[in-house]
Design brief:
heterodimer, A: 149 residues, mainly alpha, Flavocytochrome C3, Chain A, domain 2, 4 helices, 27% helix, extended, B: 194 residues, Multiheme cytochrome fold, 11 helices, elongated
Chain lengths: 149, 194
């Protein structure tokens, strides 16, 4: 009993230390300090397709989507990206998987489980990420020379 | 019938007591006051304060407008209700104002006096506006967004492509693509282009 309590106290202290460090790192200042907030970055609106970091990555949205409504009444994205709209809009058609239900049957309209586009597809901001990303593309990884241990 | 005849008899006879100068000048002044008053009254109903004087407008569509670029943007130029919903040209304005008497009826009988009732009517009301803007080639958009002075090079790539393919050729007008830019959209099932 006593042992468990000591472990709990030690763990709590340690985790608090870690937590406090992380927060202070991201804020770049002491907790009690008033930090000048960053400028709100703009959404990238280049209309240029961005390479996916891995084959299954949902492609990012290369344009602004301010005020685009996606609800039970209307889906603004579909007014350009649905199968019936791409000839006029010249936008990329949503992938055929979006018409499949979970049993793999194709539906006439976009499947309800894929309906809310920005659950997976997001815009990008014109800014530096606050935390560096260590992800390595598999092509880079396999092109690296093998290091013998 | 009798009093019409009596009025006509007085009306067609020359004036006995008043001079010609008094009648012409007096008529002119009364005309100025009447016309000025009429136009001032008309302009008073053509302000945003008047529109959102009813909670039907203030708590529904005005709240929606507030989140859009036509309300708040980098340069501070904004569109008020009548900029888009009332024609600027006089005779069309009067025609629209006469139509609006129907809206007074709606106000009195509370046709859209809750958000739920408003949502039930939203498709019909939106269609009225789409039809109006389609018929006048999106005139109220073009009062500010003049095609002649649009710099395509300053637009994003897809905007430039769409505008040169569909707008410049006159194949489409603003409202064909830009629906729901200032308010929420109704159920768009069956609407062309959705």
């Amino acid at each position: 009993m006593m042992k468990n309590l000591i472990i709990a106290v030690v763990l709590a202290t340690l985790s608090f230390g870690v937590y406090a460090d992380t927060v202070s790192e991201l804020r770049k200042g002491e907790i009690k300090q008033n930090i000048k907030p960053q400028r709100i970055p703009n959404v990238l609106n280049t209309d240029q397709k961005v390479q996916r970091n891995y084959p299954m990555q949902p492609p990012i949205i290369p344009h602004k989507i301010r005020g685009y409504e996606i609800n039970t009444k209307v889906n603004k994205c579909m007014s350009c990206h649905s199968r019936t709209r791409v000839s006029e809009s010249q936008a990329t058609m949503i992938s055929v998987t979006h018409y499949m239900n979970r049993d793999g049957n194709f539906l006439a309209e976009v499947s309800p489980r894929r309906y809310f586009c920005n659950q997976c597809h997001v815009t990008q901001l014109d800014t530096k990420p606050p935390v560096e990303n260590m992800f390595i593309d598999m092509h880079k990884l396999i092109s690296k020379p093998l290091v013998k241990e | 019938m009798k009093w019409i005849k009596a009025f006509w008899n007085v009306f067609r006879k020359p004036s006995v007591h008043y001079s010609l100068g008094f009648l012409t000048l007096g008529g002119f002044l009364a005309g100025v006051i009447f016309w000025g008053g009429f136009n001032t009254g008309l302009e008073m109903t053509n302000t945003e304060e008047f529109c959102i004087g009813c909670h039907e407008m203030e708590n529904n569509v005005y709240e929606e407008l507030k989140t859009t670029i036509h309300y708040s943007n980098r340069s501070g130029v904004r569109a008020t209700c009548p900029d888009c919903h009332v024609p600027h040209e006089w005779s069309n304005k009067i025609a629209r104002k006469m139509q609006a008497s129907k809206e007074v009826w709606g106000k009195i009988f509370g046709t859209i006096d809750t958000r739920e009732k408003f949502e039930d009517h939203r498709r019909r009301l939106a269609e009225n506006e789409w039809v109006r803007l389609k018929a006048n080639d999106s005139l109220e958009c073009r009062n500010c967004h003049n095609f002649e002075f649009m710099d395509f090079t300053a637009q994003s790539e897809r905007a430039e492509k769409m505008h040169s393919k569909y707008l410049e050729t006159g194949e489409k007008t603003c409202i064909d693509c830009h629906k729901g830019i200032a308010h929420h959209l109704p159920d768009m099932k069956g609407v062309k282009g959705w």
